[in-house]
Structure formats: C-alpha cells, structure tokens
Amino acid sequence: MTDPARTDLVEIFTDGACSGNPGPGGWGAILRYRGSEKELSGAEPLTTNNRMEMMAAIVALEALTRPSQVLLSTDSLYLKDGITRWIHNWKRNGWKTSDKKPVKNADLWQRLEAALETHRVSFEWVRGHAGHPENTRADALARRAIARTQEPGIRIQDGDPPEA
Question: Is 107 a catalytic residue?
C-alpha cells in the first residue's frame, strides 16, 4: 500500500557543475511527481560551482506551480548547510559571516529563501559521483548545459568572475 503522505511528495534532484571555477557553468534538475518527471537545465558563461548548485535548486523550486511538500536531494553540502544551518545567522548579522565578511552569493541565498516560502522542503545530501542514478542524471544535464555555452554563436559576456 502506498503511503498517502508520500503520494503528493515532489522529489527534486539537483546538481551543478563548472568547467574551471570560475568558468562556464551549468546546472541540472529533475522533478518527479506521481511518477512523472521533468528535466530542467541551464548555463552561465562565467560562474562558480556553488552558484550552479544553488541555481539548480532555485529554478526547480520556482518551477513548482502550487505549494508542495518537497524532498530536495543534492550533493552540495554548501547548499544544504547554507539553507538549513547558516542562513539564519547571516540574516541576523545583516548578510555578514561570523567574521564580518559579506556572505558570498547573498543574491542567490535570498532568491532560494524566497523560493522556499510556499513549500515544505526537506533537504537530503547524497554523495556525488557515487552511483546515485538521479544525481548522475542531474550532473549530465549540467554538463550538457555547459557544453552548449561552448557552441558557436553563444555570446560570452564580459565581466568580473563571480564569488566562489
């Protein structure tokens, strides 16, 4: 018998990748709901691995069309710990770390927090590159997205490299 509490669960599997850090980066996400799946991916010409990990989660959550119970699986402890442990102190300290430095990627932490507002989200860490099928698929989506930035006709924007 199916557990009714899990019937309406949205499972999200995310990964980010970067070719150089900073460098061209991509993210991938798989959303699973009631046996159906949707794949999402994207890339940026100059970014960091941490930003791509965050973008995968943000875009996946923003793609949900109604308030949902979510289990988000990531191989990024930076993402998981940042949103479940560190963000509360960052906000209390005016987006500064404990040593009074600006929080890296504050723009994305704020966007992620906003994306979480209408959902009940649990974060699960999975070991990357250890045979977890959905993590492997999300990584492949991210890497394919990076490859698209290398295709002729893709304009690479000038600018300073983003923070790690």
Answer: no
Among the listed residues 15, 26, 28, 134, the single catalytic one is 15
Q: Alpha-carbon distance 116 to 111, whole Å?
A: 9
The owner of tokens 């999300």 is: 138
Rounded to 5°, angle at Cα 33 from 30 and 38:
35
Active site residue 88: no
* Fold classified for 7-149: Nucleotidyltransferase; domain 5 (3.30.420)
Q: What is the DSSP string of 136-162?
A: HHHHHHHHHHHHHHTSTTPPPPP-PPP
Whether 41 and 26 have beta carbons less than 8 Å apart is answered as yes
Question: Which single residue is written with the structure tokens 């430095």?
Answer: 101
Q: Quick one: tokens of 99?
A: 């040593």
Does the annotation mark 16 as catalytic?
yes
The label of the residue with tokens 């300073």 reads: 160
pLDDT digits (tens, 9 = 90+) for 145-154: 999 887 765 5
Is the pTM for the entire model greater than 0.85?
yes
Q: Look up 119 and say whether it is catalytic.
A: no
Instruction: Name the token pair of 10.
Output: 């949205």
Cα(56)–Cα(74) distance, rounded to whole angstroms? 9
pLDDT in tens, 6-28: 558 999 999 999 999 999 999 99
